[in-house]
């Protein structure tokens, strides 16, 4: 456990542009490019409408700011905070959250918008957004998201993420005491 705590603190202290994290994010880039190419036959407006239809947008207050979050799933079910890849809150992450919410016995998923409405449309933009992310602020967003789910009927709440969100999920699991 101590090793995980040290790794999380190191992660928060490092800039995502450092040499050690560059290879990690390059692997995320390759995976995302491969998975998004499988949807090339679907028009962008169809993707947006398919993903958005199941989600309710809410605003969550944390100590120093308010941010948007997207919720789907069963009420009063266990909650899962789903953290975005470096692209932002896009169809891919909403699709993952929808699938998680439909697993048995049913879950309520919440996606905090860590980029405050911005989405990377190409690799350069996604990398720019990720490098500009306030990682300590993102952990505060995770904590506020967990607390929101608990205040709204979820007795237990976990955290998961993809690519950049996976690193933040580890940090959240270690640094946010209210994560079960």
Question: Topology, pairings included?
Answer:
Elements: H1 2-13, H2 19-37, H3 44-52, E1 56-62, E2 65-73, E3 79-83, H4 91-101, E4 108-112, H5 123-131, H6 135-151, E5 157-161, H7 164-175
Parallel strand pairs: 3-4, 3-5
Antiparallel strand pairs: 1-2, 2-4
**What structural class is derived from the secondary structure elements?**
alpha/beta
| N→C terminal distance | 15 Å
Strand order of the largest sheet: 1-2-4-3-5
CATH architecture: 3-Layer(aba) Sandwich
Total count of helical runs of at least 4 residues: 7
Protein architecture, described:
With 180 residues, the protein is of the alpha/beta class. The protein has a single domain (2-175), classed as Alpha/Beta hydrolase fold, catalytic domain (Rossmann fold, 3-Layer(aba) Sandwich), CATH 3.40.50. The protein contains seven helices and five strands; from the N terminus they run H-H-H-E-E-E-H-E-H-H-E-H. It has helices spanning 2-13, 19-37, 44-52, 91-101, 123-131, 135-151, 164-175; strands at 56-62, 65-73, 79-83, 108-112, 157-161. It has a five-stranded mixed beta sheet, with helices on both faces. Strand 1 (56-62) and strand 2 (65-73) form a beta hairpin. The chain is globular and about 40 Å long. The two termini are 15 Å apart. Residues 17-21 and 29-50 have low confidence and may be disordered.
């Amino acid at each position: 456990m101590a090793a995980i705590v040290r790794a999380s603190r190191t992660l928060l202290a490092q800039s995502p542009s450092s040499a050690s994290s560059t290879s990690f994010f390059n692997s995320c880039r390759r995976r995302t490019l491969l998975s998004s190419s499988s949807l090339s036959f679907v028009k962008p407006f169809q993707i947006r409408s398919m993903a958005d239809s199941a989600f309710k947008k809410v605003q969550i207050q944390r100590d120093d700011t308010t941010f948007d979050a997207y919720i789907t799933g069963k009420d009063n079910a266990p909650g899962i905070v789903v953290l975005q890849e470096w692209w932002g809150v896009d169809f891919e992450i909403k699709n993952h959250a929808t699938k998680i919410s439909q697993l048995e016995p049913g879950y309520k998923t919440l996606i905090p918008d860590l980029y405050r409405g911005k989405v990377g449309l190409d690799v350069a933009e996604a990398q720019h957004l990720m490098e500009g992310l306030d990682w300590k602020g993102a952990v505060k967003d995770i904590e506020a998201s967990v607390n929101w789910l608990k205040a709204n009927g979820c007795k237990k709440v976990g955290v998961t993420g993809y690519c950049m969100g996976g690193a933040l999920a580890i940090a959240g699991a270690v640094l946010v005491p209210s994560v079960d």
